[in-house]
């Protein structure tokens, strides 16, 4: 297990891709979302909201791991997106990530889709 310090050594553990698709910001985290890498996701989510994109679609298909800190980043983004008239949609969760949402009950507060296409087709 990587026990390195926060900083550039951990940046390779999570990469975040962002693109606009119609009224949605599609945010794709790739790798591990944990307390070392959470800021790498928080910053682009907040930038999307600042840019007026309140409908956030998180493509979780390439997210290998999510701990409670990562979950809190997504919950915080959900609250801010809803306050701006939008929401957060999660798509394509791997079983190991989906399990974290099930155990914590967070799957009940997010709109969860099997695929990215389904998430983009939903209002």
From TrEMBL:
SUPFAM superfamilies: SpoIIaa-like (SSF52091). Coiled coil: none annotated. One of its GO terms (molecular function) is anti-sigma factor antagonist activity. Pfam families: STAS. Residues 14-123 form the STAS domain. Belongs to the anti-sigma-factor antagonist family. This is Anti-sigma factor antagonist.
């Amino acid at each position: 297990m990587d026990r390195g310090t926060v900083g550039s050594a951990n940046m390779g553990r999570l990469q975040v891709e962002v693109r606009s698709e119609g009224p949605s910001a599609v945010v794709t985290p790739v790798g591990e979302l944990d307390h070392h890498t959470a800021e790498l996701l928080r910053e682009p989510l907040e930038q999307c909201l600042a840019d007026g994109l309140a409908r956030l679609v998180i493509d979780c298909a390439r997210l290998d791991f999510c701990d409670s800190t990562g979950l809190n980043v997504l919950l915080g983004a959900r609250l801010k997106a809803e306050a701006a008239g939008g929401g957060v949609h999660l798509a394509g969760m791997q079983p190991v990530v989906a399990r974290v949402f099930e155990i914590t009950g967070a799957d009940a507060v997010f709109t969860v889709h099997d695929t990215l296409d389904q998430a983009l087709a939903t209002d």
